[in-house]
Design goal:
Layout lengths: L9 H10 L4 E4 L1 H4 L6 H12 L3 E5 L11 H10 L5 E4 L8 H5 L10
Parallel strand pairs: 1-2, 2-3
Amino acid sequence: CSVNPFKPGWQAEVERCKSNGAIGIKINPQWQEGTLSSEAVEALALQCAAKDLLIMTHIDHPYKSSGASPAHFCELLSKCPDTKFIAAILVQLLNELPSMLNSINETIISV
């Protein structure tokens, strides 16, 4: 299921997805005209954590000015430590991500 947290009514869509058996929500702020570190995505992440839904999102390269950059993702992780995330396309960034994660307190990543 894909949910756009930047559009009105996204909360009802999360409920609909959960009631139909979804285990997660897909977002892509680049396509949805927002950032991973926005209040809208934070609200979605908190609702997903409360409903035991994971969030799958794409992560852009760190050199791109993007709403889905690793910096925005790390900021979201620090705000929503109880939310489960799948960071797609992250394998391209594994060499650079550890230094970014060092700035986040009490974040645990298991592979």
